[in-house]
Design brief:
The chain has 249 residues and is α/β, with parallel strands linked by helices. The chain has one domain: Vaccinia Virus protein VP39 (Rossmann fold), CATH 3.40.50.150. Helix content is 34%, strand content 24%. The chain has an eight-stranded mixed beta sheet with strand order 1-7-8-6-5-2-3-4. Bound molecules: S-adenosylmethionine.
């Protein structure tokens, strides 16, 4: 798929209510978590994120996905030793979910997304926060407004399984340019599935997977040094999330 077409596809998906219709994001649209939801949150937070293989407490479900998102600001720092001040960048930020909590921790937060529709929604959702800037990014590039060596932490959560491999590589090369020396990038990849795939059906979420070697190559070919690889496994399937952190040297 050509890059113009790819951008148009995501713009159309966002225009047509990708987030409002998505079962993983209902918390951020007014759904109040139940007692069972909060118990699941406690089970997620209690996991040992220092191991190389974090085993999820229950089989995959929409509830688990929502719980992981609700508890993100806790497990992220248990899993990776990240700078906690300075500038954070959230690529594929969607409607501003992670950016909202990052604004409490960091001096400045930048959110970027391929879709102008979702960036408009994120800007509105975060209008009460004064340390955030949002930009539309290219399918495989970051906006020039993000200056070289200006970012302490770059975060990319549940985005890279949806985009062609060469875009992922180019985005990580752009991340390397905008990170300060010693700055970190953290991203997750689908693993042990679709490791040969480079596209999916139009107007659907793609599920492009990466082996451990492919993940390491992404870092190496971006000029980033590997810091940590962590698997999140699920009891019912061999498909994992592979979490990766890299350091700008
Ligand atoms: C599953 S959502 C995740 C949103 C957000 N990271 C979160 O966790 O709430 C994937 C997001 O990636 C965005 N996206 C898709 N391709 C992209 C690209 N090439 N560059 C930046 N964002 C992209 C979509 O518009 C969508 O907002």
């Amino acid at each position: 798929m050509k890059s113009d077409e790819f951008r148009r596809m995501w713009d159309e998906m966002q225009r047509d209510g990708y987030f409002t219709n998505h079962p993983h994001y209902t918390d951020f649209l007014g759904h109040t978590p139940s007692k069972e939801d909060l118990e699941l949150d406690n089970a997620v937070i209690a996991l040992n994120f220092e191991t190389q293989n974090v085993s999820m407490p229950v089989p995959y479900s929409d509830s688990l996905e929502r719980s992981i998102k609700r508890t993100e600001s806790l497990w992220l720092y248990k899993m990776f030793d990240l700078p906690r001040t300075g500038t954070a960048l959230d690529i594929g930020c969607g409607f501003g979910r992670s950016v909202s909590w990052m604004a409490d921790n960091y001096d400045k937060v930048i959110g970027t997304d391929i879709s102008k529709h979702v960036i408009a929604a994120a800007t509105k959702n975060c209008e009460h926060l004064d340390n955030i800037a949002f930009y539309v990014n290219g399918p495989d590039s970051l906006p020039a407004d993000i200056l070289p060596a200006s970012v302490d932490v770059a975060y990319i959560f549940t985005v890279l399984q949806h985009i062609p491999r060469e875009y992922t590589q180019n985005i990580l090369c752009s991340v390397e340019r905008v990170l300060k020396p010693g700055g970190r990038v953290v991203f997750n990849l689908l693993s042990n599935v679709n490791e040969e795939l480079n596209e999916g059906e139009k107007h659907t979420e793609w599920a492009i997977g990466y082996s451990e070697d492919q993940a390491r190559n992404l870092l190496r070919d971006s000029g980033l040094r590997e810091e940590r690889l962590v698997y999140w496994s699920r009891p019912e399937t061999a498909i994992n999330w592979l979490w990766v952190s890299g350091i700008k040297q």
